[in-house]
Specification:
The chain is an alpha/beta fold. It is 25% helix and 21% strand. The protein starts with a helix and ends with a strand.
């Protein structure tokens, strides 16, 4: 009797979220000839800079397909252009049966019903607040880092900061579970005051507020963006950030991998340079969806497939290895950390020893993972009030690494995402003897900077062919743009904010080899980084300009 009752009860708890896979993108109003309709200027600039073609998977899902699905009565959650499908919500399974009859629907997948459970990030909770020294005039540069000194000094991040590279002009998209207290925590004052939170987006509850949902993203963000000298400075204190919520903290459901892909697509479309993902997928509440070790082959898991596509668009994807190192049955990394082109971060202690919880490799197909190791045990992170705590987990190794990569990339803007990774591997502490416990070891950003300076000397001319020369840069009231030699006749000059908003557009017929731009829009710009785009005869040129 009890068994029969249990089966009957389970049958009544119907899954309420589904993935709808479409067959094609036929008859779409979007085309490869007009990518500006679905990609921002910053996203197009990244593609042009690295000679990345616009492909069919860049084209959004056919809106007519989405509209037809919505008209059945289901709620559309997120569309994925890379996967060519949508996730939907409904409690009426008959609506899904109706959707299956559409000629443009290839298949449907029902996700398990949500089960509330203990916080899955509990292993990464912080311990009580620590004393943070206050910076005093005359203290050394290193003293300014306060509680974060060890995690930055261990990878020679001070070297790049001392040279003036702190992530300015770089955009990092953070995929996480929520960002509680970021609007009020003093460690983020400069981030807010400089308007370097470019925006937020909730993929778990579309249209929702990402801030109150969870604490994890706040702790992760602080490893990069904190900026109070003498208290805590993160690895990329001058970078700009998109705060995206793809993770539903109280559950572990495979739909979160689809959310991850949608978040990565959004990061691509707004022109992010780097994705930090302190997330991983192995086990799910419905174990029928759980990933066996054989799935960790770099091409099976949905989130891994999404990460690899993001890399193909020129984005540097940095992902935590996972905290399963002490798990006797599954000590390996999870998805999307198994991606071949993903920069996978494992955790070490302050002394440089591997943290026992840090997930290990190899991938199922025999590749070495993690890639490199950064401090992930007793890291300094922002608490919920106005001070700092210590916390452990590869969740913090990842942003320590991602933020420093932003500084390295700022120093070498002509480098590709894969050149950044290779430079880190070749100059890390175990570069000659990488293994499946610590990968290539602890990176040295000073050495990586030197290596890239040598390597990129032979590529500078080619990499700069489609870049605009702008001066003075930074500027106060106006600036000049050199007209590329290949340009003749009229051209169109556009100015964009970092979040892709068009601020100015004008058709110009230059009388010489230089355009001087000074108008009310330019002179009234707030201090910050802006993007230029010049088009002429089917050619596109891009530049970056800084207003003092």
């Amino acid at each position: 009797m009890l068994t029969l009752f249990s089966i009957s009860l389970f049958a009544q708890v119907a899954p309420d979220k589904y993935y709808i896979q479409f067959t094609d993108k036929n008859n779409s109003p979007y085309s490869l000839d007009n990518p500006g309709e679905f990609l921002t200027a910053r996203a197009l600039a990244r593609r042009a800079k690295f000679d990345i073609p616009i492909r069919e998977n860049d084209i959004p899902v056919n809106p007519q397909y989405i509209l037809a699905v919505a008209h059945t009565g289901v709620k559309i959650l997120n569309a994925s252009r890379w996967l060519n499908g949508v996730t939907v919500y409904t409690t009426d399974t008959a609506l899904i049966d109706s959707i299956r009859t559409f000629a443009f629907v290839k298949s449907t997948l029902k996700f398990a019903s949500h089960t509330q459970r203990a916080d899955k990030f509990k292993r990464e909770r912080a311990i009580p607040a620590i004393f943070s020294p206050t910076f005093k005039s005359g203290d050394t540069l290193e003293a300014q880092y306060g509680a974060a000194l060890t995690q930055i000094k261990q990878i020679d991040g001070v070297y790049l900061h001392r040279k003036g590279f702190r992530g300015q002009g770089m955009v990092i998209a953070v995929l996480d579970a929520g960002y509680s207290y970021v609007p009020t925590q003093p460690l983020f004052d400069s981030l807010r005051n400089d308007h370097r939170i470019l925006g937020t987006k909730d993929f778990v509850n579309p249209g929702g507020d990402v801030y109150p949902q969870h604490y994890h993203g706040r702790m992760v963000l602080s490893c990069m963006a904190a900026d109070i000298p003498g208290t805590m400075i993160g690895t990329a204190p001058k970078a700009s950030y998109w705060l995206l919520r793809t993770e539903d903290a109280p559950t572990e459901n495979v739909i979160e991998e689809y959310n991850w892909v949608s978040g990565a697509e959004f990061a691509d479309s707004v022109g992010a340079d780097i994705i930090n993902s302190s997330l991983g997928y192995i086990d799910f509440d419905d174990t029928t969806f759980s990933h066996p070790y054989s799935d960790m082959n770099g091409k099976t898991c949905i989130s891994t497939r999404g990460a690899e596509i993001a890399v193909s668009k020129g984005i540097l994807v940095v992902n935590s290895a996972g905290n399963s190192g002490n798990n006797k049955t599954f000590p390996w990394i999870g998805a999307p950390a198994d991606g071949d082109s993903v920069l996978t971060a494992g955790a070490v202690t302050a002394s440089g020893a591997r943290a026992s919880f840090s997930s290990i490799g190899p991938t199922f197909d025999g590749r070495i993972k993690p890639t490199v190791m950064t401090m992930g045990q007793s890291d300094a992170v922002a608490n919920s009030i106005d001070s700092i705590e210590r916390a452990s987990g590869t969740s913090f190794s990842s942003p320590v690494l991602a933020g420093m990569c932003a500084c390295l990339w700022e120093a070498h803007p002509q480098a590709t995402n894969m050149q950044i990774i290779e430079a880190l591997k070749k100059t890390a502490s175990m570069s000659e003897v990488p293994d499946t416990l610590m990968g290539w070891g602890i990176p040295d950003f000073g050495k990586a900077d030197s290596l890239l300076s040598k390597i990129l000397g032979i590529h500078t001319k080619k990499a700069g062919e489609n870049r605009l020369a702008v001066y003075p840069n930074p500027f106060r009231n106006g600036f000049s743009v050199n007209v590329p030699q290949k340009v003749s006749g009229s051209l169109r000059l556009m100015l964009f904010s970092l979040d892709g908003k068009k601020l100015f557009e004008k058709e110009i017929r230059p009388t010489g080899n230089r355009i001087y731009l000074k108008n009310s829009i330019v002179t009234q710009l707030l201090p910050g980084v802006y993007l230029l785009r010049l088009t002429s005869g089917g050619m596109h040129y891009f530049g970056k300009v800084i207003k003092k």
